[in-house]
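Bumping my old thread because nobody answered last time. Still need a sequence for this structure:
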């Protein structure tokens, strides 16, 4: 059937995911254009430091919108509440899209324009976060832990956006970097770890009968504790650089066993058994990157401690976390929700599977580019990474964005 915007208001995931797919496309093409121009010697004008602008858009541009679509679809079911009308999300999401329409040009023209746009984004996300917190408080379910933790993390994301707004308005780069780190570790990674703890064992046990849905609560607190441990050092770095060697060794002492635990956990939750089920393998493949990110962080911080901060692995650990864990998990979860709520089989067809592996190639290329550190090879790897990321994300947005404006193929409502 013909695509119609009215279908976006039929269910929360339709509106949230469509807006997120739009921002996913915009952010990928924007950064791809920036890097290609830089490679050709035509560097664009910047009113905001490029790395900080890039981090802000990639951590807060599309992630919250995907979360809104997911939380207002799955959240009411977790909480034993009725469905939330998609129209309730319309104004906050519109504010966020309008805000980014101002913020991105502001990155290049004037920081006050970027700040005004970021304030609109913060307003929209604050409203969505507060509304979800109210759902949690209304619920009478005995088990509300995961939604409650997610609600708190969403509040952290709102705080990060308001800090970014202030940083842009007053042109305080360390504060903007602080806001970005808070958004990555305290917001996005915390939400994803909480959802991973709840959903990966459940999905695995449902698809592979010999697996159990092992997810003790102490494991959730441990996952969050590890993320917030990393956050504390990340918050200190913009203001206290270089960090003392003792701090770096403390990070290494925590990160080595943490990486071993996370890699073991990926196997314990059924990484090997999932490989025969594409949609499940996509989810496990994303979680595997979390363990790799901690391992890379341990190696990087050990190098910094040994060399007096002269040597490190650069941005390799951060991109393993953001592109690898967050990016791959996001595509896996959004594909699953889009398929199930579109009346389609809960499976990854050849198109979804191909896009996922292009995204994995992008992560690997970006990590290798960071490890290469300099020279023409590093530039080439970075460009290949951003091109692969753009193909994967824009391809995904075009494919699934078309679904949200059409009725379910099974004729059911939703």
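Sorry it took so long. Here it is:
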């Amino acid at each position: 059937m013909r695509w119609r915007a009215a279908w976006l208001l039929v269910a929360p995931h339709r509106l949230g995911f469509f807006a997120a797919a739009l921002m996913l496309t915009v952010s990928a093409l924007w950064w791809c254009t920036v890097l290609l121009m830089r490679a050709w010697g035509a560097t664009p004008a910047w009113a905001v430091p490029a790395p900080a602008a890039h981090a802000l858009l990639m951590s807060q541009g599309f992630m919250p919108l995907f979360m809104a679509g997911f939380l207002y679809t799955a959240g009411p079911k977790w909480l034993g509440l009725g469905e939330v009308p998609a129209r309730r999300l319309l104004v906050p999401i519109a504010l966020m899209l309008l805000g980014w329409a101002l913020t991105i040009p502001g990155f290049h023209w004037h920081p006050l324009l970027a700040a005004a746009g970021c304030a609109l984004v913060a307003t929209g996300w604050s409203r969505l976060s507060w509304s979800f917190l109210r759902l949690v408080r209304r619920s009478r379910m005995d088990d509300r832990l995961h939604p409650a933790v997610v609600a708190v993390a969403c509040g952290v994301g709102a705080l990060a956006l308001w800090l970014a707004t202030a940083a842009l308005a007053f042109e305080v780069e360390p504060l903007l970097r602080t806001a970005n780190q808070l958004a990555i570790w305290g917001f996005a990674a915390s939400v994803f770890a909480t959802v991973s703890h709840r959903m990966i064992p459940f999905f695995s046990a449902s698809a592979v009968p010999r697996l159990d849905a092992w997810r003790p609560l102490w494991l959730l607190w441990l996952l969050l504790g590890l993320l917030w441990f990393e956050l504390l050092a990340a918050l200190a770095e913009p203001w206290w650089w270089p960090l003392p060697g003792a701090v770096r060794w403390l990070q290494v002492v925590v990160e080595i066993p943490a990486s071993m635990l996370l890699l073991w956990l990926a196997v314990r939750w059924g990484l090997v058994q999932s490989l025969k089920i594409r949609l499940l393998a996509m989810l496990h493949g994303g979680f595997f990157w979390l363990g790799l990110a901690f391992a890379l962080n341990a190696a990087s911080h050990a190098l910094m401690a040994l060399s007096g901060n002269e040597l490190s692995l650069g941005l390799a650990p951060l991109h393993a976390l953001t592109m690898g864990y967050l990016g791959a998990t996001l595509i896996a979860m959004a594909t699953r929700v889009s398929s199930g709520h579109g009346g389609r089989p809960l499976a990854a067809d050849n198109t979804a599977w191909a896009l996922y592996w292009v995204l994995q190639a992008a992560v690997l290329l970006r990590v290798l580019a960071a490890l290469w550190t300099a020279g023409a090879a590093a530039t080439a790897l970075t460009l290949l990474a951003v091109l692969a990321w753009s193909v994967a994300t824009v391809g995904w947005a075009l494919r699934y964005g078309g679904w949200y404006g059409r009725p379910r193929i099974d004729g059911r409502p939703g």
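The first helix runs from residue 12 to 39. Let me know if any region looks off to you.
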